[in-house]
Amino acid sequence: MEISGAKILIESLKREGVEYIFGVNGGAAMPIFDALYNHPYVKLIPMRHEQGAAHAADGYARATGKVGVTLATSGPGATNLVTGIATAHMDSIPMVAITGQVYTHLMGNDAFQECDVIGVTRPICKHSFLIKSSEEVADVVAEAFHIAATGRPGPVVIDFAKDAQLSESLFRYPETVNIRGYKPKVDGHPRQIAKAVELIHNAERPMLYAGGGVVLSDASDELRELAIKTEIPITVTLMGLGAFPETHPLAMEMPGMHGSCCANYAFTDSDLVIAVGARFDDRVTGNLDKFAPKAKKIHIDIDASCIGKNVPIDVPIVGDAKRILAEINKLVHRVDIEPWMRQIDEWKEKYPFEYHQNGDNIMPQYVIEQIYDLYSDAIVVGDVGQHQMWAAQYFKFTEPRQWLNSGGLGTMGFSLPAAIGAQLGCPDKTVVNINGDGSYCMTIQELIPAVTMKLPIKIFIINNMYLGMVRQWQELFHQKRYSGVDYHDNPDFALLAQAFGATGLRVERIEDVRPALEKAKNINDGPVVIDFIVDEEENVFPMVPAGAGLGDVIRGLA
Amino acid sequence: MAEERHIFSVLVENRFGVLARVVGLFSGRGFNIDSLNVAETDQPDVSHMTIVTHGDAQIIEQIYKHLNKLIDVIKVSNLTTENHVERELVLIKVYAEPHRRGEILQIVEIFRARTVDVSPTALTIEVTGDEGKLKAAIDMLRPYGIRELVRTGKIAIMRGVTK
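Predict the joint structure of the above. Result:
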């Protein structure tokens, strides 16, 4: 029996095990939405803005490890997805973004709501397809999911012309996918692995440096085994938090611009850096000339183009982190690095994350500490800015996929919709959204579907009435010229939440912080928003200023 | 690091958008393409690109890796490091009043070039060869006045058969 291209798409998604599609309807996608109507297996989650739809699909993927799917119409629907696709691309998140496209005979004619989506998204996705005939649909979906989920994962765009959605073909889903130009290498070269093991055994001041790739490759167990077996100290990046428990004695916590002094000093003194699924990002390395100058470097990464991109590597190992770490674990033994560990412990003890109470103000770090105390098992979805750094510093993550945030692109507005995706993907988990007053407003409309679906997301706004991270830079580097960062015109977020149909609370005194967080724990019939009015000009420290080396970290203002 | 010229031979899927992906890889990173030639191979679903580019060793390595990363790219070889043959074809329209035509035709002869078009005031000459030969031919013809010059960009192929 022949069925429409739109129906073939949904049946193909079902074959791929897709439970949810996060979308916003529009003219050129109507046949797809029609095929989703009352579908028994593939459920449509209508969002209020395409950016929110993309972040929700992304949050679902980050929380579950499965491919997230988002759907929008042509033209403005597709361009609104762009930020969400770029966000997923920078953090290597498996996602399939489907856009309606105008009829093929209108393409290139400046038709109503037409946009060259393939052209616009080319540099921000892993791959893209244009479907011009319903006969192509099943093969394209199978290839798209294969590409999105394997190798270094990433978003794949499917642009789907409306006439191809409507025309009918036989549905036959391919059993296997074979793309001759795409064969990701998963096993590490044994000779390279042997070289790495030799370096590990001979190092005096070794350290592990793990990133988001460990989470993506589901290699957290292998990473823990390596660290614990060798007793090598470990720093985990913002994207990898939870891959190794931050409560463990070997944990040095996050490195980089706002990372721990211990991790940054360790890089500066180390003689062997073992990088796993981390990409030597500029926010981690600081000034490259001063980065880990005494260290040999081992780099394990599935993406060969990541190796040697920023930092010369002595032992590159291309492949899947999980498999490579498992091989290394078979060969390594405990290393005797007593003096080095004494130094690490001294740094840790001397320079912990710390802040000073300012009068009666609620300190943002205090709010995070209390959230951690009450919600230590929750999935935490952070947004971008000061609150993100404080959450990374003061919440001690212990499990992979427990901390979701836009690390690479740094997309403000990511967290609320991503929390929706995470909550749908993990219905039995508590989902906490730590947001800023600036970032919250960027996708605040997604509170509507959260209320409609009665999702019990805890939305905690660290409200300092500023675009705080930018204000901090202006304070430190622009003589306090607070240009374009004053958000004292913020609305009352508690009242606003109530207008949306959510529970809204406002907290202005220190003694009310914990009771409010406790109260939120027991509100499970829908989202709860707590607006924490915090110290306005608190800064994030430690801080490695742009251009400085990690050793020149500023621990705080005198 | 010293900049060097490199020739990449790239086999790609013969479908729309592939050229844009390859070119986008260069433009998005601020890498320069010196010349680019694309055409079908003897397999209709595979195209061959010869890309001439330059950069230091790190940039060349990045180009190689990013070309490999493209889904539509089937195979990448850096011919500069291999034993290879390279050719380029140039069409030169040169001013040739009747009294100078003889001299120009002598130059054509010397370079084993060909005259492909003639008009009362101009000759169009086809020269094939490597970079050095083309440069020499162009330099010899320049004094007569070059009206127009079109080059194919380099094409290259590995010598022998790799096992």
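Chain A is about 40% helix and 15% strand.
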